[in-house]
Amino acid sequence: MHAVLPLPRWGLIVLIALIGLLSAPTVRADDANVEIFTHASIDQQYLTRSFLRAVFSLRVRTWPDGQPIRVFVLDDSDPLHIRFCQEHLATYPYVLRKSWNRTSYTGTGLLPVRVDSIEDMRRRVERTQGAIGYVPVAPRDETARSPS
Amino acid sequence: MNRIAKLTFMLSLALTQPLVQAHSDPELEVHGALAMGYIKSSGNNYLSSSTQGTNNVYEVAINARTSLTPELLVAGQLMARDYGTSDDGRMRLDYLQLDYQFWRALSGSAGLRLGKLKNPVGFYNDSRDIVFSRPGILLPSVYLEDTGIRDLLFASEGVQGYSHWELGPSLSHLVVGWGRERDATDEFERAAGMDIGGDVEIDDLLTAQWIGEWAGGSLRTGISYFGGNLRLRPEDASVLPATRLEADLWVLSLQRLWSNGSLTAEYRLTEATTVTAGSRSQSKSDSAYVQYRRQFGQQWSGYLRYDLNALDRNDRRGYRAEASTGAPRYTRFSRSHVAGFQWAPTSNWGVFGEFHYVDGTANVRAQDNVGRDVQRYWTMGLVMIAYQF
């Protein structure tokens, strides 16, 4: 029996798929700045970049003072979420999603709660002990608290 | 689970999606995933008794977790997986663990896990069963995906200590684990494709993994160790002698992440000592892959992988084995060229496709190709659709 080498046929399919991928649109963050938004009980000294990375990658479950952490996020494709990942975590949404998937299927942490809108984010974070999320920068909004 | 049942389950998940997302009670989290796939190979049978293609491929998982206290998390997952001839679709307990995080500070944390635990080997072993958390539909051969002994590597009943801490510009993750003795007869018989006429037990399981991150996690490197003994106790020692296999498995991992892509490379070295009927033999096998993944916006990604697998590290091209046994040398290695894509229209849904062009048959299971000659060059196409909530 001779070796089967149907590479040209499959190669054409792969080539077409790759061309399709190359032509896919790229989602970009908009120009709105974003800042951390927490429940009033959270000490702002905790909001260092490295601890925020630990919080949003779900490595820690409690704040240093013992309060349980509850993470709220927008959808992966939301421009504000993309901006938040880039500006505050120095990472990318797809990396964060992989990390959350891994957490889900290894049982090593509590997953973020996805909210549908910025208004919902504000409302849920304000009402939940130990909560953290993010909102667009709003200089006159005194309820928003950002890290120093 | 037949096809109609699978479709019904998937449809019901989709219909309940708004309810699930609206459920935000932090006291109990329930998540899960369902994936269905199709595999078609040419040249050799792969996870099937023919090259006609098989849709006997699915993964179903449901997991739940709750915080008993802020420091104490309990989590478990039920899983059913059918991958052609390599798994049987039975529902099993994937993990069930108590996780006590006793130290937390701005610079790190530490804790203990107890129960049935996932073994951390490489970047992907502890989340290998769900396509959303794998680097592709099929894992690289570093993870022994084709050998049928995945269950032996996947989880163990025991205890793990874990920690992460910052030191200068780096972030370290460390996991050290021990697993108790357990019966592995079923897994071993499925891997061998036959009734072995005895019991198989695994003991002295040790796992350790260190992963370091630099530049905010955009550069990751790691080293993993997995070791244990496997004892075969036959019912009739005159037919099959008692055998002990001492295995040590090492994995080196490296990953670089960019805004629109990642480059991942891993290497596995397996050292095995077999003691049977008073004789002792040693073998070393190894495997490596490099994969480039490119993100095209939030929804699309594509990847290319080159995967090498050698059954004998000292005879990677198989010449010695061919001279001594007469078996074709290409049965001793496999070199896989893989191209794949993922389309994620939402974070819940994923459509995956993958094509393999393979030189060598080290990753072809003999029991799938009984009575036929294996072909050195062969191909495989896989598609999978998956939903998670």
Q: What descriptors fit this protein?
A:
heterodimer, A: 148 residues, alpha/beta, D-Maltodextrin-Binding Protein, domain 2, four-stranded mixed β-sheet, 4 strands, 40% helix, globular, B: 389 residues, mainly beta, Porin, 17 strands
Compact overview of the structure:
The complex is a heterodimer of chains A (148) and B (389). Chain A is of the alpha/beta class and 148 residues long. Chain A has five helices and four strands; from the N terminus they run αβαβααβαβ.
CATH architecture of chain B: Beta Barrel
In total, the number of strands of chain A is: 4
Name the beta content range of chain B: over 45%
**How many domains of chain B, as an integer?**
1
Secondary-structure class of chain B:
mainly beta
How much helical structure, as a percent, in the residues of chain A? Answer: 25-40%
Which two chains touch over the largest interface? A-B, 62 and 68 residues
Written account of the structure:
The complex is a heterodimer of chains A (148) and B (389). Chain A is α/β, with parallel strands linked by helices. Chain A has helices at 7-22, 49-56, 79-89, 93-106, 118-127; strands at 34-38, 70-73, 113-114, 131-136. Chain A has a domain at 34-136: D-Maltodextrin-Binding Protein, domain 2 (3-Layer(aba) Sandwich). In chain A, strands 1-4-2-3 form a four-stranded mixed beta sheet, sandwiched between helices. Chain A is globular and about 30 Å long. With 389 residues, chain B is mainly β. Chain B has one domain: Porin. In chain B, 10% of the residues lie in helices and 57% in strands. In chain B, strands 1-2-3-4-5-6-7-9-10-11-12-13-14-15-16-17 form a 16-stranded antiparallel beta barrel. In chain B, a hairpin with a 5-residue loop joins strand 15 (333-343) and strand 16. Residues 11-25 of chain B have low confidence and may be disordered. The chains are: A alpha/beta (148), B mainly beta (389). At the A-B interface, helix 1, helix 2, helix 3, helix 4 and strand 3 of A face strand 1, strand 2, strand 3, strand 4 and strand 5 of B.
